[in-house]
Amino acid sequence: MVEEGATIMKIDKPRGITTMIAEKIKANERFAVYIVIPMWPEGVPTGAATQRILFWQNKTMQMMYETIYNALVEVGLEAAFSPQDYLNFFCLGNREAVDIHENITVSGIPPPPNTPQV
């Protein structure tokens, strides 16, 4: 669900994203960016190319969080906020539905409906 007044934008460069966040921090405006990335790049997981992609992806994320932290320090908000309040990365995944009949305990009583196993 998108909050009222929220805008969905497409910005292609990591530096552009962090610059926009830093500007919002300095203007004391609430702003958050959610980035969806693949959990694993295509290719052999242990292959040199895949590992290189993951390495640079990690370095890019570090740079982005560092830029946001520096903006927070500049305005004196580093104790009140964290870079993760402004920038988050997510990986989407599929989850298989659990068959409740397979999870019946030894006593024959199914788990309560609000447990993670359901």
TrEMBL record:
GO terms for molecular function: phospholipase D activity. One of its GO terms (biological process) is phospholipid catabolic process. It comes from the Eukaryota. The keyword Transmembrane does not apply. One of its GO terms (cellular component) is plasma membrane. Keywords: Lipid metabolism, Repeat. InterPro entries: PLipase_D_fam (IPR015679). This is Phospholipase D beta 1-like protein.
